[in-house]
Amino acid sequence: MQITDVRVRKVTKEGKMKAVVSITFDEEFVVHDIKVIEGEKGLFIAMPSRKATDGEYRDIAHPINSETRDRIQKLILEKFEEALEVEAES
What we know:
The protein is an alpha+beta fold. 27% of the residues lie in helices and 43% in strands. The strands form two sheets. A four-stranded antiparallel beta sheet has the order 1-2-3-4, with helices on one face. Strands 5-6 form a two-stranded antiparallel sheet.
């Protein structure tokens, strides 16, 4: 399965969330609302989630293994950095 599109929408207000991303797989399946978060150890992604009845947040779409999560995160963060560079050039 290949990631065929990554769309980054930067968040303009202050806070830990820096962007919201949509990724497309094989030009056939899209996952919206992946968040780019600034954490203590740097940027990371948070998969789309919703609040359960017990108050906990649960991912509603996520990779099954760490290799896939790492590949998705690496590509998303690369695209986010590219978006920052384009903005800085403007």
